[in-house]
Amino acid sequence: MLVELREYEIAEGAMADFVKVFDEEVVPYQTSKGIVFLGSYVSEENPNTFIWLRGFKDQAELDRIYKAIYESEHWLTVIKPKVADILLKKKGTLIRPTSAGQAFIDRQA
Question: What Rg value do the Cα atoms of the chain yield, rounded?
């Protein structure tokens, strides 16, 4: 499994609004397109930092799903406008689990 660790900087005071949209709209929409949702977190050290993990079978699946999500009319006209002004910075890092990490992922499935 290929895992993407996403880290976002959220505008001051907007985390609750962002989490609501993320939980109620982003996760259901992206899982409907095929991502494996692995978890989401708010930093204890910086309350404006939101982190989440999502998985893909391989790079080809990631590319296909990215296109299905981020080029879709629903994403561009419904979801993106709700977070555009409060999501200040984003960073994505692709990671591969170790054998122990993969065993944990497999137990969650």
Answer: 14
